[in-house]
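User: Modeling request: complex.
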Amino acid sequence: MSQSTDQSPERPAGRAVPTSADVARLAGVSRATVSYVLNNTSAVRISEPTRRRVREAAEELGYVPHAAARSLRAGHSRMVLLPTAHVPVGPLYSQFFNDFQWALRRLDYTVVQYGSVGMRAEEAARAWAELRPVAVVSLGEAELTAQGVEILKRSGARAVITLGTQNVEGTHALVMEQGRVGEVAATHLVETGRRRIGVVIPEEPGLDMFSGPRLEGARRAAEGTGATVVPLPLRYDEESARALAARWRDQDLDGVFAYNDEYAMLLMRALQDEGISVPGETAVIGADDLLLGRLLRPRLSTVAIDMVLGRELAELVDRAVREPDTAPLSRSLLDSRVVRRESS
Amino acid sequence: MSQSTDQSPERPAGRAVPTSADVARLAGVSRATVSYVLNNTSAVRISEPTRRRVREAAEELGYVPHAAARSLRAGHSRMVLLPTAHVPVGPLYSQFFNDFQWALRRLDYTVVQYGSVGMRAEEAARAWAELRPVAVVSLGEAELTAQGVEILKRSGARAVITLGTQNVEGTHALVMEQGRVGEVAATHLVETGRRRIGVVIPEEPGLDMFSGPRLEGARRAAEGTGATVVPLPLRYDEESARALAARWRDQDLDGVFAYNDEYAMLLMRALQDEGISVPGETAVIGADDLLLGRLLRPRLSTVAIDMVLGRELAELVDRAVREPDTAPLSRSLLDSRVVRRESS
DNA sequence: TTGAAAGCGCTACCAC
DNA sequence: GTGGTAGCGCTTTCAA
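Assistant: Request completed. Predicted assembly structure:
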């Protein structure tokens, strides 16, 4: 809005952007005919010579239809909006994410990622609503309040789907049951005889939504077994790991679930440097089943997380769009299982 | 296009999406006034009571302006389109990416990521052009031909910026000089007395655009020094690494630049398992300076890559948009330096 | 088989 | 101060 907004006096050498009217003029037909030809409208028959003239004119001018005008006229779009606060990291997640995008594309949706870092929940929801997406799939890092959902639905979104750990009112909640990850890890440690179990909580921001439920899951698993669970804050650097390892024996820990394989590798190295034997004195288990964990000695035990297929999820989105009134679905997106190697 | 496209007979319980006309009706004013108030248009003075009535009406209806209609009217948008074929991996890249998005937002652009996996170059360019972005910043994974650039510019894009390894005609090319990475790595190996230098080439798809230039850079560095460079294809799994290590002595290699730290860790483990001492018999150097590399024994030498600030790049984009006629800028986005630890 | 025209939601001129 | 209204580019009904 800061620059001159009317027409385009600052458009230089390049001639103005061609519209369907330009194509019509060049082809010597009406705009209606142009539309029919370029959209292959079946309800109307256009002679082959006309079709060719229109196509050639469009080609010559480099005509590309204006999506905004089109969806304004149609009254709806097929845009699926994916708000992302942070680009998700990790091969597991990004693989899933690519599949998901690809599958939505195949279903003829336009997938648009909208980075919403540093906006408050409601403000962000308004920004998304301005784009009039047919569906919003929140990846969970971007927060979404009941109020935000209301705004989106009022502005025409036919499906709001949250893909995370929380369960927001009025949405289809696809839950990544992070608790299960902590649960299977802790169960494994308990069953192999550990009694004082640490659970690493990353201090890095943005991970709380995973680490919290994982800790809770671990607590659940320990309940009634006589084992205790101890939260262990840890920054992802060597200094922090060293400090934690130095206090290890004071805390009398004999097992640890280290949030994921990366934190596990960091901590395991620090423990070994401190002279604490793994798995003899302390068992260590990570999560994500990274290849790198297999390269350590001892090889790192881990929780493998099987994520639902992107294609499957895309179909869920499609169904939610087509039948907005079906009961909000709520389903778990991941399954967790222990892969025992040598560190536990 | 597949479903009934006119009006919205399938919109159920929820009343129709409110427009500025609805707000005007409820507030008892004209649509023009609504627009003035909600946009804080300074050229026109509206009485305070009227302003309040309009605001309350908008609030009550849950009115959110329609971005497509707005930009159609304005004749331009402030959308910056970021086509992404694959979600970029690695903390370095994603940090940069987040900064970049955030900075563009601050400059009042709407940042939209458009996943274009599985489209051919020209087809993708048309899809982007339909959205009429003011700028397109290609991350390099999505290919962009001279033809594609032409389409985008014809459809009103004021800046097309490629952020990658290639230099596409007609764009502002921000080059990530991957060659430098290979060059400093190889130089380091040569200077520390290595003569038969392997360069790992990942077999995973999508990495060629990095690995190719890195290999070339290594070749450049070796030139005239008497050292030879040997390309080593490697898949990111233990089997492939084991096979490569088994052939190691036949190839008479005494140093290797392993593409990045992850491949380096994989390979180093395989070499050690094969009884090849590192760095005694063979030096190993990776790239990216991952924390995990420091945890190995020997600690992994690496090439640290300093990426330009996202904010800086966002300003470049802004300038390119405001002055589309300035000479295409071409600048290097990264600087590389060797971090020598124990593996080389 | 083709054309004329209405109208999607919005903003910015020009009257009053 | 406020309202009427044209028109951005497109699709689709209705008429010819």
